[in-house]
Amino acid sequence: MEGIAAEGWALIPVLSLTVSVLTVIATAVLAASAALQAARCGFDAFGAVALAAAASLGGGTVRDLLLGATPVFWLRDITYLATAAPVGLGVFLFADRVEGGTGKRLRLLLYLDALGLALFTLVGIAVARQAGVSEVMAVALGCITGVTGGILRDLLCGQPPLVLREDLYASVSLAGGALFMALDGPLPAPAAEMLAFAVMVAARFLVLWRQRRQPPG
């Protein structure tokens, strides 16, 4: 039994320091977006923390399950849950005091979501590459990691997920992931990551800016 357990643990990709730091940042960002959504939907504090955890850890959980990396990352390292819970609670308590109906919480949510999408896409690709999958599958797993948290957040709030309402959402993740894979080699990995991140965030911000300028339909 010990030999089987050791073999199972050996198959689990160990997150490098860079990937771990990116994951913590991405977890905090998506937890904050979920807490804002919780405040908009009238959740209580417990519901906000649960939503923050589901949204910020959901994408990586699905990724790890697809890679056969169990226990999943947040069960092996409490840092991520310990990040999601207090960030979710703190942002919820702040957002709950912001006057509703002004659109401020929604705008902040969408901008945080854009940052989370880009960060988790890059994290997903990094973990997938550590697991030894092909470049195409690494990009696909990056997209799954990037969009799943937002899907869970919206579904748990009874709203259509952004990925089903926005033409440039999953496609931004896929394009950004492909750009990173193309640049990684010609450029140092950190430079490729920063450039791909900037492109994804700029694309989503541009979509949000154009939506704000459009007259109500």
TrEMBL record:
Residue span(s) of domain Glycine transporter: 21-94, 111-183
Transmembrane segments: 12-34, 41-58, 78-96, 108-130, 191-209
Pfam family name, one: Gly_transporter
Main location: membrane
Cross-referenced InterPro entries: Gly_transporter
Topology in membrane: Multi-pass membrane protein
Compartments, record wording: Cell membrane
Keyword terms: Cell membrane, Membrane, Transmembrane, Transmembrane helix
Protein family per UniProt: Belongs to the UPF0126 family.
Protein name: Trimeric intracellular cation channel family protein
Natural source organism: Paralimibaculum aggregatum
Lineage: Bacteria, Pseudomonadati, Pseudomonadota, Alphaproteobacteria, Rhodobacterales
